[in-house]
Structures are given as structure tokens and as C-alpha cells.
Amino acid sequence: MPNIYDIIRAAVLIGAFIFNARLDRKSWMLTDSMLVGSYGLGYSLFPGSLLESGGSMESYLVRLFGAIILGQVLIWYLTRRTVDDAVVGTILWSRLMGILVLLLVVFQGFWQSRESPSNKNVWFDLLGFLLLLGNTICYLVRGRYAVGGREQKGPVSIVLRIYFLILFFSGLCCMAFPKVMMPFKPLEKLDVVIMRSIGAVLFGNSIEAWYAPSWRSDENKNAFFISQILTSFLFCVTLAIAFFIEGTFNFREALILHTGVVPGMVILVGMYFIWKEGRDGNAMHSSYFTRSKSS
């Protein structure tokens, strides 16, 4: 049974999201970053609050999930003043698809195991994601943001396409083959749900990489790359905590898991090309090719 504290914090959360939905674009992008960032920070710093009986493996996966959330929050914050509506539309559609898939895999996991989560914090977090889904739909309807359109030629777009493939297939593999993606430890039912949730968020991130070549300013693309660097850095920190402090993995396992960061280093190549184009005075491309119309 929920106590008065649970009722109060749920009411505050609902009120915060309702208030946020009524703000202008720049304001709600800022407050939205703070709201979602608090979730990501909570997952990273206090994984045990979500899983009261979880072990070191569950803590590692929850921290990894929080790292991806914080990376998403960073691009939301860095692009809050953008004048390119396609950037906002892309991020919103990315988040919409990521949350929908996340909720699907979570509820499917609980239905398949015939068990409902006993920890009240899990229900509180699900409420948060449902409210975030509602806010995202509200923003899309209010702003009528479009995605796609004319894509810019050049090496930066090629890097973004490569990174899309990395995120897309990583997300699919985490959702379809969670035990293959984490072969070192036996995964419990809850571990599988968390792994699939990680895959859902990675799948949502891939949508940003797919449409980013149509963003007009390289500054926005650079913001995307920076957010992915933060995610990779936090992944390494999470792995270090699991290895040095919690003893989740041995040296060989930790070393192999670190190779998961290597494909993401392609973003450094993208940032180099952006820097090179800016140095040459070509930060804004003048040539385009049309792949798709705005949708």
C-alpha cells in the first residue's frame, strides 16, 4: 500500500510535468532537461533505490541505463536555443520512439514472468516515463515539428550514418539477445528487462543519428557528438565502479566490455571533420542532396 510520502511525490511529479508542458519552447527544454536529468543522475548514483534487493550486476546495468539517459539530456540542453526546428523535432521523435519501445519491453517482461515489481520505486519510475511520453506527444502536437528534409553532403554525414548503424544494431541486439550481449554472468529476469530497456533507449538514439545529416548547423551536430562522448565516458566510469569497487567482473571480462566503447569512437572522427570544416570557413554547407521530404 502506498503511504503518504508516495502519494506526495507522485503528485509533485505529475504537477511538475503539467507545469513544464505549459512553458515556451526554450523554457520547457531547460526544465525538461532538469527533470529527466534527475532520473538519469538517480540511476547512476543510487541504483539500489530502484532495485532494493538487487546485486552488483543489477547495479551495473541500472548505472549503464542512467549513463545513456544523461547523454540524451545533454543534447537536449545544448540545443535548447537552436533556431532549427528539425533538431527539436528529431529529438522529440527519437524520445517518443525510445519511450514507447522501453515501456513495451518493460511491460512485456513483467507479463512474461507473471510477476509485478514489488519495489514501489519501479512503479514511480514507470509513472515518470508515462508522463514523459505524454509531454513528448504534447510538444510534438504544439510545435508541429518536422524531421528529415535536405541532407548535407560531406564526411560528417557519412560518420553520422555509420554511427546510426552502430546505435541501431546495438539497440536491437540488446533487446533481442540480452544474454548474448552480456555473456559473462547469468542474467535473471529483471536483468533481462533492464538490458532490453537499454536497447530501447539506444534504438531511440539511433533516430537522432539518422536525421542529424539534415540539421542545418554543424553546432547542433557537434552537440550530438558531445552527448555521445559523455555517454561513452560514463560507460567507462560505470564499468570501473563494477570492476574496482563492486567486483562484478574480473579483469578479462572488464577488458572485453571496454571494447564496447571502441565503435563509438567514430564520433571523434565526426568532431574532427566539423572542426576542419569550421577552420576552412565551411561550417555551413552550401550543397545538398535530397533524400526525403520533411515529414
From TrEMBL:
Cleavable signal peptide: none
Keyword Membrane part of the UniProt annotation: yes
Transmembrane segments: 6-23, 30-48, 60-79, 91-111, 123-141, 162-181, 193-211, 223-244, 256-275
Keywords: Membrane, Transmembrane, Transmembrane helix
Full protein name: Uncharacterized protein
Organism, as annotated: Potamilus streckersoni
